[in-house]
Amino acid sequence: MRILITAGPTREPIDAVRFISNRSSGKMGVAIAQAAADAGHDVTLLLGPVMAPATLHDTMRVYRFNTSAELKQMLEAHFPDCEVLVMAAAVADYRMEQASEGKLKRESAGGRDAELTLRLQPTPDLVRAVASTKRPEQKVVAFALEEPMEMEQRAVAKMKRKGVDAMVANPLGTMDGDHIAPLWLLADGRRTEPGRMTKPDFAGWLVGHLNDL
Amino acid sequence: MRILITAGPTREPIDAVRFISNRSSGKMGVAIAQAAADAGHDVTLLLGPVMAPATLHDTMRVYRFNTSAELKQMLEAHFPDCEVLVMAAAVADYRMEQASEGKLKRESAGGRDAELTLRLQPTPDLVRAVASTKRPEQKVVAFALEEPMEMEQRAVAKMKRKGVDAMVANPLGTMDGDHIAPLWLLADGRRTEPGRMTKPDFAGWLVGHLNDL
Q1: What's the CATH code of the domain at B37?
Q2: B6-42 pLDDT, tens per residue?
Q3: 3-class DSSP state for residue A136?
Q4: How far is Cα B29 from Cα B39, in angstroms, rounded to an integer?
Q5: What residues contact residue B98 under an 8 Å CB cut-off, 6+ apart?
Q6: Searching chain B, which residue's CA lies closest to the CA of residue A111?
Q7: Is residue A144 included in any domain, yes or no?
Q8: Which residue is closest to B12 within chain A, CA to CA?
Q9: Which domain holds residue A68?
Q10: What is the pTM of this model?
């Protein structure tokens, strides 16, 4: 299969120096890319601003993004050529309307004891946008990081809203860690709890289950 | 000499997942710590959320921080024992008044197309605070990242305001790169431009010039 995988956080600039990001380590997405390449699939990895592992499979194509706008462009370029997209990247929900070109000064905010107000606007929903362009034979898998309470209901609602074929739902706290205790939800209502495992182990499990789609 | 060195960015949480940070790679501060240890100094490194190099000098004590509040506590604990502090860390100027405990939802901001406003308050000026507790035999070196225009005047003003003994001034764009073209300014008015060099080369130069203080 031709599989496109996104991994890692985005960074949304506030100015030339500062940015808003999130704690995604990229480990889950990178592990999926490795497992998919190990299984003989044709893999393209879109990787955010994290340290790339030294041992990426050499058959893999890797492109690096920083901002959600860069990731959006890469998705538009590479999604048409893939059969399955796994959106493991943690895309920012919000960004500055316009980043400052220089470095924001405390002084310019009205003196060094003044508050600073950042007005953020929602980023486009990349998963929903890409899923809306699917051809019938293409499948999209998304991730949801939710509060433990009502995690499944929230993830199912998100799966429908985004129009994806499957969702890996995780409780908050998974991010940045080495383990995962996911819930695998399919758009047709099937659900599986593979149990707590390492991210590389779950990556192998997930790649084996892409045929469920 | 007993040298305390800070390196890397801080991360100031917005909620359980998101944070504000900056592009500091920690390379400059880590290079100074390595050069100081190589020169036989007793080195303590306070290192932010960057990937630590695999080859840190094994005589070095290393403590990791995430937030500016954690760095502040570490400075209070370790500054009294050092002779020279080199503040190469890029400490956030602003942080959320109170980070949210869970994950901020688009929905809670008034629907997915609503703007989100973050109200930030200035962080305590850690360099100024620590410099104000100096004993006469202790010295503090700070870094300034400035717009190229009027860089020197700004850096000199900052050196006075913060009450430090020396300042390494750099134009914006140095951050995150492998080279540096610094200006070395001393509180007594001396100034040196060592020229453009790699960060490890400048680290060796700087450690050799700590006796100027």
Answers
A1: 3.40.50.10300
A2: 999 999 999 989 999 999 999 999 999 999 999 999 9
A3: coil
A4: 15
A5: none
A6: B122
A7: yes
A8: A20
A9: 2-104+114-212
A10: 0.90
